[in-house]
Amino acid sequence: MKKEYEHIDKILPYGELIRGFANQNLITKSDLGTSLRTRGIFFGKNEKENLVPCLTSIILSPREFFALSEKLNTKEDNEKKLSSRIGYNSSSNLINDVPKVISPKDIFSPYSNIEIIGVPTYTMVNNNPNNIKIDIEIERNDLNKSWFESKNTFKCSLNVIKTDENELKIVKTNTSPETYDVTRAYEKNLISHLKEKALIKKDEELKKIYFGEFNNEHRIVYLIRLSTKLNSSFFDFKDIVDWEFKPDDNIKLPEEINWMTNKEALIIKGKNIHNTFFFDDSEYHKYLKVWSIEAKLSFNYELYTGECTVNFGFFDYPTKGDNAEFEINISRFSVYQNLDARDKKIAKSKIFELLESEKNKIYKKYKDFLNDNQA
Predict the structure, then answer these.
(1) How many beta carbons lie within 10 A of that of residue 84, not counting itself?
(2) Quick one: 124 and 261 in the same domain?
(3) How many CB atoms lie within 10 A of CB 359?
(4) What DSSP state is assigned to residue 326?
(5) pLDDT above 60: residue 23
(6) 325 pLDDT tier (thresholds 50, 70, 90)
(7) Which of 31, 40, 106, 303 lies deepest, with the highest CB count within 10 Å?
(8) Closest by Cα among 205, 172, 179 to 191
(9) Are residues 94 and 235 in the same domain?
(10) Are 188 and 245 contained in the same domain?
């Protein structure tokens, strides 16, 4: 979550000072239009290229500026979750095995523009000593940014669970590229600590799901199973709304999809994308490198019913290739019950956990399939 900007309550900007502020993505053209209408200023077409210059030509009152700044301060970044597993051999409770205090010096260079706020420590989840979590808050200092965004605060977490299969399940929750680096550093610190205590074998590696461990056909099947064919009574598939892929450059394309040749990335958005012939027909799957599918699902779990839009994919594939790690994030989430912000966050977390469980089940079936065919 972005924290309130440090100087936003100490300055009343106008003219060019407000241009960059008003152009922030978290302040929408609707927000700007509403602000200007209170002054009796109306536009036939509410676009930022019209609204922002007008805003720079007037002086906002403190109340008007506060209303806009609230839009910037209260909107959250989407959480992204990545999970991994590693063998673990300990008869004691997990809370007793982890490092008690982690020094920021063990995580970052003193020359980094990232600062960890406070001293994060592991705490039990629901009083379970084998389900622990460390919540981390970081501050990023950008000296080259404008007055209102030179300091941003983001939250992230590391959830560690001791399973019945003599493994640790580690879930990293991130809200920005910086928090990804932070949770990865904390994960590395944890694994190193447990290896020093001989609770994890020295040569043991984290088990993650990477783009490169699937061939083109199996990767599409995995993503389809997660998005359109979830074998769960808690979810119903509604629609595919986004699909990101490219043709495989190493295979000659059939005539029907030859138009994809030399395309670096193709993004299809809309409705009923799953009925597109080269998506629906498995004959074409071997020619396509698909790294992301966004699906609309409805859910009914415990006391919660609603709809969500979920991104499943290897989102870093364009830059990391085969080393891109699988992620899940919920881009839109709504519940039919009237919940306050705290309870809605709890509901979203529970839906995340269900999706994470389904992800692992389907991945295990995929690995079993590979082992059976190699036997």
Answers:
(1) 19
(2) no
(3) 21
(4) P
(5) yes
(6) very high
(7) 31
(8) 205
(9) no
(10) no
Q: How confident is the model over 50-102, as pLDDT tens digits?
A: 888 888 888 888 788 877 776 655 444 578 888 999 999 999 999 999 988 77
Residues 29 and 53 in one domain: yes
- Last residue in a domain, options 168, 196, 224: 196
Residues 192 and 179: their CA atoms lie apart, in Å, by: 20
SS3 state of residue 168: strand
Length, in residues, of the chain: 375
**DSSP per residue, 33-64:** HHHHHTTT---SS--HHHHHHHHHTS---HHH
Which of 308, 288, 309 lies closest to 244, judged by CA?
288
Neighbours of 157 (CB within 10 A): 21
Co-location of 182 and 272 in the same domain: no
For residue 103, give the DSSP letter: -
> How many domains, the chain?
3
Specify if 63 maps to a domain.
yes
Q: CB within 8 A of 371, min separation 6: which ones?
A: none
